Amino acid sequence: MKQSPRVLGRPRNDINAKPTKAVVLETATKLFIKEGYKNISMDDVAKACNVTKATIYYYYPTKGELYTSALIEMMNKIRQAIIRILEQSKPFKERLEELVEVHLSATVAIDMKNFMREATMNLSESQILKVHASENELYKTIQQAMQIEMEKGTIHQGNAEFFAHTFLSLMTVGYFKDGEGNRLFQTEAIAAKEIVDFFWKSVGK
């Protein structure tokens, strides 16, 4: 039987393997984390995935699109992890501590500030809007949890959005290193306890 011609650049399907698009995105994300946007080319991604550059362009027409997808995928994964932790039945303060510890442990190699800075410098306005929309969904997840706990009486009444942004800002302190590369907290567990204790003094009952 004569096979229909493939679209140029379209990868062959292998039902037993991880989808090529997923491999490309996963690999590109790791490369961007390690080397940054400017130091990684579409050629680099293709070589690391062991596919042609045409295959990369089939899924992602530009490096900006690939970078946008990488950022959104990272934030979606972070958001899903946050949801899983917040949906547990343990006390809210304990959930927050676990959230900080897990988040810091999972993202210690990711400089999100640098990611966002490179996004602002290199992405189109529409791409930046997509990234910010995904970032806002992450904030909303924390905000909704704060609102629920207010209604339960676990924390003081206030602006849930402000509480969420304050909490996430405090969490970034866990990444802090001085000029010699020394961390402010020796472990993620210590960071989580100190950060949540500080936050709880303002909102907890």
Automatic annotation (TrEMBL):
For this protein, the record's InterPro entries field holds: Homeodomain-like_sf, HTH-type_Tx_Regulator, HTH_TetR
- Keyword Signal applies: no
- What residue ranges does this record give for the DNA-binding region? 41-60
Q: What is the name listed in the Swiss-Prot or TrEMBL entry for this protein?
A: TetR/AcrR family transcriptional regulator
**Per the record's keyword annotation, is DNA-binding included, yes or no?**
yes
Tell me the classification of the organism that encodes this protein.
Answer: Bacteria, Bacillati, Bacillota, Bacilli, Bacillales
**Entry keyword set:** DNA-binding, Repressor
Annotated HTH tetR-type domain ranges read: 18-78
User: Which source organism?
Assistant: Lysinibacillus agricola
Show the PROSITE patterns listed in the entry.
HTH_TETR_2
